[in-house]
Amino acid sequence: MAEFGRQRGKRQEDDGLGSVLDLLLANARLVLGVTGAAVLAIATLAVKRLIDRATSPRDEGDPKAEQKTLEESWQDLALIKATPKPPKKQRREDLSEPLLSPARPLLPGETCEPRVCSAPPETPRVESSPLRCLTLQEKLLSHYSSRLAVPEVQVSLALQLARSICTQLQTFLRNKCPELPFGSLFLSGPLLDGLEALTADHIHLMLPVVLDATLWSLIPGEDTVVRNPHYWMIKRTDLEYFPRGCSPWDRFIVGRYLSSNALNETLHKMLVASINWPAIGSLLGSVIHPVVASQELKLEVKHDQVELSITLFPVVEMEDKVLLAAPPEGLVENLWLESFHRAEVSKVKELDAGDSGARQHCLCILNGICKSHPALHKLSGSPLTHVVLHLSATSSDWAEESLADRFQQVLEELVGYLEKGVLPSYFNHKINLFSELLEDEIDEMGFMLYRAISEPELLLKEK
């Protein structure tokens, strides 16, 4: 009877242990996954067998039985050690697979206790005030004040450096080439004009070439082989009466014409090889390097507070024309580019002064957008100024309150000019300011600006 009680108690303990292990294994798949549950099942089975042998009565004195028990224990321990380690948890790539496996069917007398998941603490609700939609006018003014305003400290330092370099270069040219009547160097460019400056990083240095009007005359570009009214040629005259050598600039003649290329090459050699820029830079507290590989006459200036690019332009002023030694790429080397920059700036400021207009603000915003946009950067500068001047002839309301309307109108005008592929100069309608653009470039610019007409904010986004 006592033996029966012990066996019954053992069966009840086994049943209880089995129920616990079954429940553990059933929940293991939920927590560990299929592979982890399999590993846990093998380990649990081995441990259960060890527990069974530990609680079962021993046949003391039977060495064979003890040896058998010991061997089975080693086998079970070896089984536990041989179980593969569960792989590291990986990301679940296939979202179509069920995250949880189906639950095990309940055994008779077993109840399913609901799992209680702790809910994340509620975040306090913050009543957000309704966002205020800015008008295009407000966005343009914000864009102008936040991105286009140049700090006065940078402007002052950049101008100071440029003037000092201008003085040093002027002294060098007078000492090195006293026979060449260069005029007084002066500064120009966006930083001084206020129409397109984004940062205080670029200045033009104008070097006047003084010609004797009795020995030189201008030939219009449409009368030359290039047939381009934007360029001019400067011809040496009266060689029969005033032979070569009468003008100090005769050394730069190519085929009876003053060669812009020949003059630029001579100045380029001086900038690169003849001037002691390290000494000048040390005197000014900066580092100055001439750009050797550039076709232009460029200096790069690095200071602790500003980095500056200075471009030198030889310039001829004759017969109310301003001509730059900036020939087009190609075999023609005697051409001089007519510049309207001085007339553009003067006319825009004159119009703004007459009606308290916002043309300068509008141009500054447009130039900033085009310069920073990879598809529109060739539109910045002169083309935009001429569009605004054309528009000023038909639209008289350029007050600050109408900035958004004029801005959109300029975009529409630009799209119209791009569709034709022609933007006539405000000062000379024979000149097409789009003549240097490729067809693909015109198409890309036109597409971008056409989209911006209905959604101007596209142009104000950060690039």
Automatic annotation (TrEMBL):
Keywords, sorted A to Z: Membrane, Mitochondrion, Mitochondrion outer membrane, Transmembrane, Transmembrane helix
Stretches assigned to the Mitochondrial dynamics protein MID51-like C-terminal domain: 155-344
Pfam families hit by this protein: Mab-21_C (PF20266), MID51-like_C (PF21297)
Ranges where the Mab-21-like HhH/H2TH-like domain occurs: 359-445
Keyword Cell cycle applies: no
Membrane topology value: Single-pass membrane protein
Record InterPro entries: Mab-21_HhH/H2TH-like (IPR046906), MAB21L/cGLR (IPR024810), MID49/MID51 (IPR045909), MID51-like_C (IPR049097)
Protein localization: Mitochondrion outer membrane
Keyword Protease listed: no
Positions of the UniProt region annotated as Disordered: 81-123
GO terms for biological process, alphabetical: mitochondrion organization; positive regulation of mitochondrial fission
Cellular component terms (Gene Ontology): mitochondrial outer membrane
Record's protein name: MID49 protein
Organism classification: Eukaryota, Metazoa, Chordata, Craniata, Vertebrata
